[in-house]
Amino acid sequence: MRNLEFKARYPNLRRAARLSKELGAGFLGRLRQTDTYFHVPTGRLKLREIIHRDAGGKLVETSAELIGYHRPNKAAARTSRYEIVLVSHPRKMKRLLGAFLGVQSVVRKTRDVYLLENLRIHLDRVARLGSFVEFELIVTPKKTLAQCGRRMRQLLAEFAIGPSQLIAGSYADLKAAD
Question: How far apart are CA 178 and CA 48, in angstroms?
Fold first, then answer.
């Protein structure tokens, strides 16, 4: 799969939530995520453990997935190629991958998710790093990379995100830089 995405520091997540709703995006719920990143020779590999609560705060599900992806580190909209595999035994998987690859970093965050067509808006509160907004536009035959690029530029303007707010890497990279 492929998407176009960017991540930016965004201290006012209430404003971001209001803007998301004004765009017509629906609130899907709040996720509590723990991402364990493993050492790999190329790209990134993380085990994501998720606790999902609906808009009313009711527990919807717990799940885990292994996510492998390649994405350039640049402070701009960037394409990402990724694969996601559901994991039924996350503790065992984490132990196995940790033993063979080594754990690079663990990132804990709370994520509010909004959805509008092929756009996912993530409002993230990341432990020890702060507040961020992330936009992901899924690239499809009907939503081309060029169309997604135009939409991404509109989103930057609508949310008043400047170049100094953009983040080049992942949360794990930010954590390592601290």
Answer: 22
pTM: 0.90
**Which residue type does 7 have?**
K
- Using CA atoms, how far residue 44 sits from 2, 74, 80, 161, 173, in Å, is 15, 15, 11, 26, 11
Specify whether the CB–CB gap between 162 and 75 falls below 8 A: no
Tokens found for residue 4: 């176009």
Q: State the pLDDT at residue 76.
A: 74
What secondary structure does DSSP assign to 43-71, as a single string?
SEEEEEEEEEE-TTS-EEEEEEEEEEEE-
Does the pLDDT at position 72 exceed 80?
A: no
- What whole-number distance in Å separates Cα of residue 19 and Cα of residue 170? 24
List, in sequence order, every residue forming a beta bridge with 37; answer none if it has no partner.
46, 105
What distance in Å separates the CA atoms of residue 6 and residue 152, rounded to the nearest whole number? Answer: 8
State how far the Cα of 16 lies from the Cα of 56, in Å rounded to an integer: 19
